[in-house]
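Quick one: Putative glutamate--cysteine ligase 2 from Blastococcus xanthinilyticus, structure tokens please.
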Amino acid sequence: MGVEEELLVVGADGVPVPGGPAALATAARRGEAEDVDQHDRADRGEDAGVPDDARLVPELKAQQLELGTPVCSTLGEVHDQLRHWRDRADAAAVSRGLRVAALGTSPVAVDPVPTPGERYDRMLDAFGRTAEEALTCGCHVHVSVGDDEEGVAVLDRIRVWLPVLTALSANSPFWQGADTAYASYRSQVWRRWPSAGPTGTFGDAAGYHRLVRAALATGTVLDEGQLYFDARLSATWPTVEVRTADVLLRVEDAVTLAGLVRALVETAAREAGAGTAPPDVPSEVLGLAAWRASRSGLGGDLVHPRTGRPAPAADVLADLLGHVGPALADAGDQARVTDGVHALLARGTGAELQRRVHRETGDLRAVVRAAVAVTAGTDAAEPDAGGSR
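--- reply ---
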């Protein structure tokens, strides 16, 4: 498995700053990053000469950068790699007088600045204000599968649980200086992209690829990389990629998410092997479940994947843990992931921490400063979790 995180680049005053390309240029000199020119050349299919261990890359907006772990086998490795690459991203930003923050959206008002590059220019031209205003940070989890047939069998069976992952990761309550009343407003902004959201069942790999071809044939998206389904087959790696989460404020919460995603994939693969049919839930109902998860996070009812009815978030998470329990146990992850879920229920998501800081200070810039500290692991809000139990 592997994890990708998008981070905000911010100044000392808490305002996002278009310093991502400069920070990445510093990191590229250390062999840790693709700079903007390398990334743009790679998108055009040219040899950019990127070091194999470069794990920091540009994003759509210059107020962002992205990190990605190498392939990991254990949650302890995921933790250590996320901690390492968050530190390297922060060090690159510090070299330019800036910091990074794991926030799904900016709490303070900001004018997004596009990252230079041919692909990003095409996106801005094609999608107008949707691309202009998009300054959101997500977390994507990749889990390996044997082939496309297994991958599609997994996609068909995990789709009903994906809104629960949105609720668990909620970390974007503020937008342009105001409280949105959502726990994950990033999810609402993200749904503006034409291909974003839940999908129906595909049946088999041929059905998945037919849909991909049909979507590309509309000319609405630039390429397969812009098929922003909630979960998809990676076009680059032999993985299922789950894309519904906000970037999580705490490293350990990202580890919990990764453990749940891997267990969901393994459980789905076992169900498919046993001939268990995927749940028959319309994508329209999944869209409603996703909206509800975005609205309340873990602070209210969620739509239960098994019943389609509202249920307390704690009950839904308990049923999720039960659903994936054998896979967690077989991977040696059960104690760590169960404790991680209980910790989220007890102290709240990143959205709840952001609102708590705002209530205490009345200052959205203080919210960003608190997020910088937690992202860096220097705040007591993040537990010490340096390896597998």
